[in-house]
Design brief:
By secondary structure, this protein is mostly beta strands. 12% of the residues lie in helices and 50% in strands. The protein has helices at residues 2-13, 141-144, 224-235, 239-245, 325-336, and strands at residues 21-35, 57-58, 64-72, 77-86, 96-105, 110-118, 151-163, 166-182, 189-205, 208-222, 247-262, 266-274, 283-293, 298-310, 340-352, 355-366, 390-400. Strands 1-3-4-5-6-7-8-9-10-11-12-13-14-15-16-17 form a 16-stranded antiparallel barrel.
Length: 401
């Protein structure tokens, strides 16, 4: 179904644009980030490598280039196609379709979208790729990495309602996404498939914005390594543990909420997200608070963020002498022990009407017995029991055109 919706959107947008209204725009980031942990890489979204163990510094973390074509097909029907070259899960910059949808304005207050869109769960979901529209060098990963992929294919409806001085937006839909996700201390990648539905409500009045959402979902996740481990457990008679570890049609619900105050002088935002699950699947809860002050062309900002996690019945029930104990323990630790706290200090400086320089320093403290939500850990030298305080330094130029 969803592939047909996406194909239909692409076919319509491939029609000649003669006699059509169209608008071509673009965005991008040029940046360099350096991470002082030589035993692990900083993780962003579903990218398998970052600065740190792989390279002290890299331009891959945030750099991107995207172009978008918007077509006016009629008074009620519009189409959008966005292609972005961004560091992806396959460790390259091959351009990918990041938006491809039809927008039907059914009435002044109601419109529908069909095709490829972005998850609408967070305050900056609509601008997840466009760093120029965000106050930071990148969204706080503790919260935004709860959804490491932010693209899905589906159908959604947006309804606007005016209540006194409040403008309410109801955003609901059903969608599907599939992607590859790297495991914390393994070269393997999980093949993930998610079926989701969602309802988000946004309320705006003056400088204030409030947003809350719920997204009941089901997921599948597998890899060659995980499949081999599950088969070995079942062959050894540990069927119950194997079933508990397996992520197959596993239900979970994402709850998210955010608030923002944005006037001429201050930009204050806070978000929280939690993802209760059944069985083995990791149950993260994350939040951040960010405060920015506009002073002419300069905007200094500070962000505090925290990521915590729990699991219900996913403890390693094997005896330490069991030959499969180490493999199960590694899987549990790499996917569940990722708690951390961070403090980000930054400043943005307008370079012109269409570009901004951002300098940001992140101080990241993984919890004890935690992999810190990093990637590519050195198996012997990363101090899992008592991780050090790490520093990530970033200089980016964000632009639109």
């Amino acid at each position: 179904m969803f592939r047909l919706v996406l194909l239909s959107a692409l076919l319509v947008m491939s029609l000649p644009v003669v006699a059509m209204d169209y608008y071509l725009s673009g965005f991008g980031t040029l940046g360099v980030s350096c991470f002082d942990n030589e035993y692990a890489d900083f993780r962003k979204d579903d990218i398998p490598k970052g600065p740190g163990r792989s390279n002290d510094c890299t331009a891959k973390l945030d750099s991107k280039l995207g172009v978008q074509l918007d077509l006016g097909l009629s008074d009620e029907l519009e189409a959008a196609l966005q292609v972005t070259a961004i560091h992806n899960a396959d460790d390259n910059f091959i351009p990918q379709v990041t938006l491809a949808n039809l927008r039907w304005q059914a009435s002044d207050d109601l419109n529908f979208r069909f095709g490829r869109m972005q998850n609408p769960n967070f305050l900056y979901s609509e601008y997840r790729n466009v760093s120029y529209a965000q106050p930071w060098a990148r969204p706080p990963g503790e919260v935004y990495n709860v959804l490491p992929t932010f693209l899905h294919d589906g159908v959604e409806a947006l309804y606007l309602y005016q209540y006194d001085d409040w403008l309410l937006e109801f955003h609901m839909g059903i969608a599907q996404s599939d992607f590859k996700y790297p495991v914390s201390n393994s070269s393997d990648k999980l093949d993930v498939d998610i079926q989701t539905s969602y309802l988000n409500v946004t309320a705006r009045k003056g400088a204030w914005t409030f947003k809350a959402g719920v997204a009941p979902s089901r997921s599948d996740a597998s890899s060659a390594t995980v499949d081999a481990l599950l088969a070995s457990l079942r062959a050894a008679g540990e069927t119950a543990l194997a079933n508990d570890l397996e992520i197959k049609d596993s239900p979970y619900t994402l709850y998210s909420a955010g608030v923002q105050y944005d006037d001429a002088n201050w930009l204050i935002s806070a978000e929280i997200a939690t993802r209760p699950t059944e069985g083995f699947v990791y149950h993260p809860t994350a939040a951040y608070l960010s405060v920015a002050k506009r002073i002419g062309l300069w905007t200094p900002y500070v962000t505090l963020a925290v990521l915590n996690g729990t699991q219900d019945d996913a403890y390693n029930t094997l005896a330490p002498s069991d030959p499969l104990y180490a493999s199960v323990e590694q899987l549990l630790s790499s996917t569940h022990d990722v708690e951390r706290k961070s403090l980000s200090l930054g400043v943005a400086r307008e370079l012109g009407e269409q570009s901004t320089l951002k300098v940001q320093v992140d101080f990241i403290q993984p919890d004890k017995n935690s992999f810190g939500d990093y990637i590519n850990h050195h198996p012997g030298d990363y101090d899992f029991a008592d991780p050090r305080l790490d520093t990530l330094f970033t200089v980016n130029v964000d632009f639109v055109f």
